Amino acid sequence: PPFQNAELGKRAPRWIRDNEVTMCMKCKEPFNALTRRRHHCRACGHVVCWKCSDYKAHLEYDGNKLNKVCKDCYHVITGCTDSEEKKKKGILEIESAEVSGNSVICSFLQYMEKSKPWQKAWCVIPKHEALVLYMYGAPQDVKALATIPLLGYTVDDTPRSADLPHSFKLTQSKSVHSFAADNEELKQKWLKVIHLAVKGETPECQNE
To answer: Which of 2, 45, 119, 205 has the highest CB neighbour number within 10 Å of its CB?
Structure first.
């Protein structure tokens, strides 16, 4: 569960592993070859970039020693606030962990768009928006790479020979999104949900 502000610094957090994220969990900057230094906030355990980890605060669980913390924890622990108002979260800014924990279905799927190569994406259909498919780079990412409003799409679930075996396509006029599951069972679970969503019906929860 996310840390309650009152507990910040009082006990050691669970560290999010480096490979669970592809971007800074605070400013959403992707980690790439240049900015690939990943830092952990010692208060909340989130993975952040160097810019967002440039703060220090005294942490009770570490004998009140000064520790590297992220901007948010720094403000909570020290009581200093930023005068700037937090910008409204855009539609893509819903955290994956948040939607995955409350989703109709979520899993990794291979995804292909136009003639780009297949890539692995963490796909989620959240309960609060059961007609929208969110795609993330990894399960702990704090910003979606894309969203597909499913209503009105046509589902084509017969893979061509060039496709991955358990694939299906969503098409609407010119846009075509191809997905592939790791196995037939997972593919059918997704199709069950998507067949309803494209008709505007709310699917049953498939997350066992």
So the answer is: 45
Separation of alpha carbons 158 and 27, rounded Å: 40
Per-residue pLDDT of 72-131, as tens digits, reads: 888 888 876 554 334 434 556 777 777 778 889 999 999 998 778 899 999 999 888 888
Asked if residue 60 and residue 102 are part of one domain, the reply reads no
Instruction: List the beta bridge partners of residue 198.
Output: none
Residues 63 and 149 grouped into a single domain: no
Contact predicate 196/131, CB 8 Å:
no
DSSP 81-131: --SSPPPPP-GGGS-HHHHHTTEEEEEEEEEEETTSPPEEEEEEEEGGGTT
Work out how many domains the chain is built from and give that number.
2
pTM of the model: 0.59
* Listed residue (39, 25, 31) closest to 72, CA to CA: 25
For residue 112, the enclosing domain spans 96-199
pLDDT in tens, 191-205: 999 999 999 888 777
Look at residue 153 and tell me if it is in a domain: yes
Q: What are 149-153's contacts with CB under 8 Å, separation 24+?
A: 150/125, 150/194, 150/197, 150/198, 151/197, 151/198, 151/199, 151/200, 152/198, 153/194, 153/198
Q: Is residue 85 part of a domain?
A: no
Q: Give yes or no for residue 25 having a pLDDT over 80.
A: yes
Average pLDDT over residues 137-162: 87
